[in-house]
Amino acid sequence: MVNKNIAAIGSAVFLTLPWIIIRFSGFSLTPPLAAFLSGVAIIGAAFLLSWAAETSEIDVPRSASLAFVALIAVMPEYAVDIYFTWQAGQAPQSPYVHYAVANMTGANRLLIGIGWSMVFLLAIFWKNNTDKKFVELDKSINLEILFLLAATLYAFTLYFKSDISIFDTLIFISLYIAYIILAMRSPHEEPELEGVPSFLASFGSLKRKLSVLLFFVFSGFIILISVESFSEGLIKSASHLGINPFLMVQWVAPLASESPELIVAAYLIKRARTTASLNALISSKLNQWTLLIGTIPVVYSLSLGGIGALPLDHRQSEELLLTAAQSLFAIAVILNLRVSVPEALLILALFLVQFFIPGVGGRVELSVVYIVLSLILFIWRREYLIKALKGFSL
Asked: Is the pLDDT of residue 283 over 80?
């Protein structure tokens, strides 16, 4: 068993080695190959991050540890989006201004459309030992649901603005800080670790913490040396292949940068921890829907050399509207802490529909569909929202 765990760690590290060699050897690669190898390195780092983050559950409360898992797991997405935002500040009239929002909205919608539906369906058909065609969630997830709802409702205001400003930063980051404070108050539960996290947990306290720290530092290093080549490689590859760079940044980039969240979720489902799996994904979504959006104006201002707000054009405003609408619908689905197969498939189907709707108008219409369905579910399940609010306290 020890050899199996060591082999798993070695395999994750091996995924990063080709890019490390290329990065420091000075070899010149074509943009598609550079994007591929740096993306593979990010995925290798994602495995190490997920193992280290889960091992950290030993030392902190469950909700806080899952929030920490989400924060660490979302690092690749932060790195990619912060890179685009920084470049936007350096050249405010460049396409990078569009790429920052494209990457953020694409990652958010991918996380729900693929991530959440994947968790529900895997939990029902893979780990459900009964004939139930639904999955039940624990009420402990209500904390994340309420804060995600608050962040989502505020995110709708961005549709009516011409930019994302420092004021928005204050709102979003305040929500995230409040969430972390409450998560830290949750009771500590001894985690049931398996695989690599169990192997790391078998070490003495000092050795375990040093091993986890090493995983974090190494993964962060890999992400740091990979993000620019990955991001630029995708943009140049899009131009070379005749693909719209905006779409490449919005959908292809998140497939690698969101891999940590999806890896963590699938891993937890494998261990029959459905609530923990969805909790990790909700926390990741909450991270991106608060801390990431809130960071964008700060990074943009630092790059710009003064206080500034990231401008939004009509296309970006529509993307934000659609992302907020999808988030609202997903919250409405899980509000009763029970998700059926049709509901999981509907989340997936509505996500896929957007790829067949041309133009900005189509995104607005899809947003309206999301909002109408959400309102119906919120009215139908209003007693669950009341229960969640009653159990909420600062």
From this structure: no
